[in-house]
Amino acid sequence: MYQASNHWGVELNGAAEDKKRWRMLLKPPFDPFVEEVKDERGDYLALRSTTFDGVANSKEVHELAKKLFKTLNVVMSKTADADPVMNGAVLEFVPNGLPRKHHHLEAEGITMRVRVGLATLTVTDAQGNVIEPPPAPSRAQLWMSAVMLKPEIGSALRFLDGKPDWVELYKAYEAVKQMPNGGISENEIKRFKRTANAEERHGPGIVKPHARPMELWEGRALITRWVSAAITEIGEDK
């Protein structure tokens, strides 16, 4: 992982608690990262990423950001219980000047809910002095590193966005089916595939249902476990 060196960023739009989680778990010098921008218009947060390296204009940054934010929102949901944060204005960082904002407005909904706070761990020595841990990528950043290495992981995560149905779950399965799955049994995989095919993919009555069909929540949990195991394997191989 390395810190982005390009002059583009994207403003974060969303609930204060979710933006706080993004800032806490997406720190430089790891990619992607969130930084605070200060100017006379007020303070706000910006996402920086090597994804924007070499991009020529703000419209292209905006299009890349939509895909990046969709993937990141799933990652942050799975790793930090965060609700969606939306991509706002594209920021162009210029030498010796304030960032220029390029607005590409699209209607986006923001869902807010009440949830527990994000726990932090403080380590002290025998004298009670706080020991600062060495810089390390967060779990969310490790997941995004896997996405960069294996685009199929990003595809699977985007299919898991929100409350995926059987069609989306099967598409996520197809994206990672050749990757490590954390020990999911062949029987459970067959049960998942038969249920998905019978429920949605081929229509009721075309595929014979499994004798013990999966519940939708079970299918979501199985594919999430599979994707997580694949990400872990990629991290260990680096």
Task: Give an account of the 3D structure.
The protein has about 240 residues and is of the alpha+beta class. The protein has 2 domains: about 10-110 and about 120-125, no CATH class; about 150-235, no CATH class. Helix content is about 45%, strand content about 15%. The protein has 7 helices and 7 strands. The strands form 2 sheets. A 5-stranded antiparallel sheet has the order 2-3-1-4-5, covered by helices on one side. A two-stranded antiparallel ribbon has the order 6-7. Helix 2 packs across helix 3 (about 140-150), helix 3 (about 140-150) crosses helix 7 and helix 5 (about 165-175) packs across helix 6 (about 185-200). The protein is globular and about 65 Å long. The termini are close together.
Q: Can you describe this structure in just a few lines?
A:
This protein has 238 residues and is α+β, with helices and mostly antiparallel strands.
Count of alpha and pi helical runs: 7
Round the Cα radius of gyration to an integer and report it.
20 Å
Q: How many separate structural domains?
A: 2
How many β-strand runs? 7
Give helix % range: 40-55%
Low-confidence stretches: 107-121
Order of helices and strands, N to C?
EHEEHEEEEHHHHH
* Strand numbers in spatial order across the main sheet: 2-3-1-4-5
Structural class: alpha+beta
Global mean pLDDT: 84
- The proportion of residues in beta strands is 5-15%
In whole angstroms, the N-to-C terminal distance is 11 Å
- Shape descriptor reads globular
Described by strand count, sense and barrel closure, the largest sheet is:
5 strands, antiparallel
